[in-house]
Design brief:
Blueprint (H helix, E strand, L loop, with lengths): L6 E6 L11 H4 L4 H15 L2 E6 L3 H11 L6 E5 L8 H10 L3 E5 L21 E4 L4 H13 L7
Parallel strand pairs: 1-2, 1-3, 3-4, 4-5
Helix pairs in contact: 2-5, 3-4
Amino acid sequence: MRDGKKSVLVINGPNLNLLGTREPQLYGYETLMDVEAAGKQQAEQLGAHVDFYQSNWEGALVDKIQTARTDGTDGIVINPGGFTHTSVAIRDALLAVSIPFIELHVANIHAREEWRHHSYFSDKAKAIIVGCGAAGYQYAIEHVVKKFPERKRE
């Protein structure tokens, strides 16, 4: 909780800053700025707080997750991008902070190359949203706000 409101942290990994321009036939035409604006409006309507963070750097994502441990974050929505298939460090950070999270992918990773089918996060995620396009962010934010319990501050 932050200021009496449920708090959601939305984390986007590498190349998601190119959403809307990178392979739009696969990922759609909505930009990350569009996703963030819609998410902030949605959070306001739900009486919640949402923060967005994107980095192409694995360590920066780990740092942001660790910061969430004590800043009042109740739930994390993470689109790890390419780190889905490689990052034990991000997985370990998520487990270390004990904040429930939703794994999110704009495209259906299971309809793509076989090596993309494996995720280091799916077995620990409270939910997985795959292949719903940018709308997946709205589904995830709503789920965190309505279904995740409030966390006690450490």
